[in-house]
Amino acid sequence: MFELEHRVHETLRWWVGDPTPDRIAGIIDSIPELKKLVDANELKQRFDPPNVWSSDGHIKSLAQVFPELAEIRGECVNAIRDLPNGVSKAEWCLTPIARDCGADADVEAAIYFASRGKLVGIGIEEIRRRWHSSICFDVLQRTSASGSQELQTRAKEKTLSLAEAADVLLDRSLGGRFFSFRDEEEDFIDSSFVRAAEWLNIGGFERWLQSAVEPLSIGPKYLEGQSEFWWLFFFCRSDLALRTAERHGLEAWFWSLSQGEVERGRPWRVFWSRNDGKPRDYLPSASILLFAWKRIAPQGLKEDTITEATQLLLSTQMNSGAWPLLADNAKPDLISTCFAIHGLALTRPAGWISAVKRAGEWIRSQQDAFGLWHVDGGPAIMLTVLALDAIELAAGGTKVTFRVPSVDAASVDVCVLKSSKPGVIADPVYDYSKEPWYSATPPEIAAIAFSNAARKAKPTLAFVVATETELRQVLRVLRPLPNQRRVWRSSRGHETYYLGRLGAFRTVVLLSSMGSHGPTSATLSIASLIEKWKPVAIVLVGIAFGASRNKHLPADVLVSEHLIPYESQRLGEKIQFRNPVPPSSPILVNRFRHALDWKFLRPDGSQCRCHIGPLLSGEKLIDDNCFKESLLEQYPNAIGGEMEGTGLWASSSRDKKDWIVVKGVCDWADGNKNDAYQMMAAASAVSLCLHVFRDPGALDGV
Fold it and tell me: Within a domain: residue 338?
């Protein structure tokens, strides 16, 4: 239906010339549905020359002589209007547009499907051919007066190479554009071309790509107000542009725009109406500033302006969930709301989840009956893709038309508002009372003699914890062994064990004391566990500190790809760490790396993330930022730290057992340690483990 409406609409829209029988036959061949509505003999008579002229001597329009086209389109439009709105309807509408896109702004539709992994029949080579055809047309137009005849002939025949065309166009035209566009598309057409070349993997146009990105590398020559903000926003949605542009140019753009034309440090202040002489806050600029800040990541910039921009957005959101263009305006605006979601979803200040969720719902309500989003005079395809990206970001998703760090990337950033106490970042406060992991009680437990447990339990998986908080969260998800009503508890020597099923596996759970040294600490306790139960894999689960507040949020989960035992040092003029950096079980790391569908939500609705990387391990309970930073100087890739991993490595490697450390972030070891996030962090880590080990094949190959 959408495909048919699109073909008929395009035919009526672009028809030029005399509707001869042969041309009409071509339309019918391209739109087979017409054969059911027209009679071939009648059609031939209708298009005899006398019948295509109106009484005033002009050729009739296509709709006048072929009203069946308008009839078909009308039926399609009515059927489309009756369909329920939603993302699927938008995608149905964008599909034929993406298939037919060429050297114009409709390429945004193709970018959308490529970013979602759905090319829906888009012919990449056909798009490349259309781009080449448009370039040849440009060459033909620009050399008509002074170009060589051979060059014009080859351009007309479309045999001109891209290299030759670049020599002609890029020396004569700023940017070397070959895209066709309207005035309202000028701010984003170059970035659309760059994004399309990247997402669709179209090669051969590198000279044009470099030319389009060159202004980013050079930096601003002069500024003309808010239009540069928009231009920078769209280029910041191009990963290729940001990788290609010179670093100093990108930072110069950001620095210049962040200074403010009307008021220093408040670049969103504008004289919207010159008559009253009073500056007003133009909200899209504040949103763009946040988005560009995260995408460009300028160095050495004071964040006061960023903090104020964040506060401005959070305080000007309307009851509907939308944002207006101007802070003192009462009219919601689609573009301003989309920009705000982009800025807040990347900087992620306290309260961002509820703000963008409401905004996303408002954007959904603005979808028109055809499945698109638009504003008066605005480019509907670009706005629809922008709105769909905003909806995805508002839902916490990452499938958008620029690269958002994946859930296991250690580079996911967060901007949080500063508290009133200098130098301290305000931690979000959560209400845990309604969370299932907060009030859940442990399972029913039955004491059993060790000899009976050893003969019957036969666990293949072992979990080790170091605190009662961690133990309670593991026991919460532990289920009785097959044909048993209760989880078993059995003691032997210095250790007490719990036996049951975690996910698909028979499991033994051990509580050691904190650290790796001592009679009941991790090293000796795990060695005793291995001797008594002989599991095939051991997981150390619990809580840890995150390396950076800017990268690791409360209850994000750290998974050890390697362990960094930092205690063994040579102290001299410079500290030298002498222990090896042992790898965790590659098989277990693989299983956690592929837990992409794991979901654990904080009370504010935000999704916890999994970070896989090197993990510091030592005896010290660190709560000193200087000491932590000294460790990170030696191991800058470390994602956090904990206290029992070295003991796990020592005992497991000696008996050739597969092992891994999985711990939730409860603090950042920066002098502000408290217990507020410990239970949530432990619950998050256990949730991830349960997700992984629900798969009966998780231990295959171990």
Answer: no
Tokens at 576, concatenated: 């030298």
182 SS3 class: coil
Q: How far apart are CA 7 and CA 534, in angstroms?
A: 68
Going by the DSSP 8-state scheme, the letter that residue 175 receives in this structure is G
List pLDDT tens digits, range 238-265: 999 998 899 889 999 888 888 877 787 7
Domain closes at, from 82, 103, 133: 82
DSSP strand E in 527-587: where? Answer: 537-546, 557-565, 569-570, 576-577
Residue 539 within any structural domain of the chain: yes
Is the sign of the CA dihedral 619, 625, 631, 637 positive or negative? positive
Dihedral over alpha carbons 42, 46, 47, 48 (to 10 degrees): 100
Q: How many angstroms separate the CA atoms of 84 and 197, rounded?
A: 33
3 state DSSP class of 650? helix
pLDDT tens string 273-292 = 655 668 889 999 999 999 99
3-state DSSP assignment of residue 401: coil
Beta-strand runs (E) in 181-331: 269-270, 280-281, 323-324
Query: What is the 8-class DSSP label of residue 143?
Result: T
pLDDT one-digit tens code per residue, 341-378: 999 999 998 889 999 999 999 999 999 888 899 888 78
Q: Is 556 helix (H, G, I), strand (E, B) or coil?
A: coil
**447 falls within a domain:** yes
The domain boundary, picked from 25, 56, 82, lies at 82
Domain carrying residue 472: 436-693
Instruction: Note whether 190 and 159 are within 8 A (CB).
Output: no
CA dist 19 and 339 (Å) reads: 46
Give the domain CATH number at 583. 3.40.50.1580
Tell me the whole-structure pTM to 2 decimals. Answer: 0.56
The pLDDT score that the predictor gives to residue 60 is 59
Domain count, the chain: 2
Cross-strand pairs, 663: 542, 558
- Identify residue 318 by its one-letter amino acid code: M
CB-based contact 326:281 (threshold 8 Å)? yes
* Residue 335 located in a structural domain: no
